[in-house]
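Both lines are retained for reference:
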Amino acid sequence: EIVGERPSGEGNGQQTTGVVQPNAYHETPVLSLVGGIVRRVGPELGQSVLKGQTVAVVSSNDLADAQAKYIAAVAELEEHHKHHARAEKLVEIGAASREELEQAANKLKAAESEVANVRQRLLLLGLSSQRVTALRSTSQISSEVSFPSPASGTVTSRSVNAGEVIEANKELLRVTDLSSVWVVAQVYEKDLGKVHIGSGASISTDAYPGRVFRGQ
C-alpha cells in the first residue's frame, strides 16, 4: 500500500506523535550459540522466512574441538565396556577380585558420564541429535553449524554479514510476526481525558507523566 500521512478523525480531534513498531511479544531473536566466523546469512531485511528455514551458517573451531572430544570420549567408553566385560568373566572363573570389578565399573560410569556431558555440549552448540549420534570418526567433523529460524515471520533486524567474526550468544537477526503491530503514541497527562479506549486499543495506567497508547 502507499504510505502517507493524514490526520485521523477517530481521536475526537486529539493528535499526538507516535510510532508504529513490531509487537514485542511476537519477536524472536536468532542467536549464535558458538563463536566463530559467519559464513552465510541468507535472508535480508524485510524478507519473509519460514520456521525451520536455515537463516545463517557459522564456522567455529570450538564446535570442531567439541566434536573431537566427543569422538575420543566414545572410543574410551567402548574400551571401558570391554574392560568391564573382561573383568566380569575373570571374576566368574576366580581370576580377578570383586574389587577389580568394582574399579572397572566405576571407570565405566565415569566414561559414560563424560560422553553424556560432551554430547550435551554439542547439542547446546546447535548440532542435531542425529548428527551427534552419527559422529564416529574425525573425518565426520565439521566446524560449520546451521541456525534455523525459530518462527515464521519477517526479518526485522539483521546485525551481521558474511565474513564477520562473532562471539557466542551473538544475535544474528530477529524474526517478527507482523500480522499485528503496535502503535505507540505519547499522550500528555492533561490530554488523557480526551483519549478513550477503542476497538483493539488500550491505555496504560501507570503513574508517569507520559502515557503510552497501544493499538493493534
About this structure: Helices lie at 61-92, 98-124, 129-133. The first strand starts at residue 18 and ends at 22.
